[in-house]
Design a protein that fits this description.
107 residues, mainly alpha, Cytochrome Bc1 Complex, Chain D, domain 2
């Protein structure tokens, strides 16, 4: 196997691993493994919120919140919302924000 072939195979394997960790950018928020692992405990498996937990991510308030503000909340936390800036990459946070926004366009 040539060096180029090894490099191409390695690239595909690395891309596959990254894709598996973040989920496809156009996938549903609730199907994203990052959401399931980090967010569903407080915001619910359907992102509809939990009593005594995190608020619904499907609401007029979230819909009208600019993406940059949502990104800052996920990154830096707010109120009872923990900081995820050290736990998730900027790309992972951007994907979650896009998926939250997309979920609100469907309501």
């Amino acid at each position: 196997m040539s060096h180029l072939s090894i490099a191409i195979v390695s690239l595909f394997l690395a891309a596959g691993a990254a894709f598996a960790q973040t989920g496809p950018p156009d996938a549903s928020l609730t199907a994203n493994s990052l959401f399931v692992k980090n967010c569903a405990k407080c915001h619910g498996k359907t992102a509809g919120g939990r009593h005594f937990g995190g608020p619904s991510l499907i609401s007029d308030k979230i819909s009208s919140t600019p993406a940059e503000d949502l990104r800052n909340i996920v990154t830096d936390g707010k109120g009872h919302m923990p900081k995820f800036g050290a736990k998730l990459t900027p790309d992972q946070i951007d994907t979650l924000v896009r998926q939250i926004k997309a979920l609100n366009h469907k309501k």
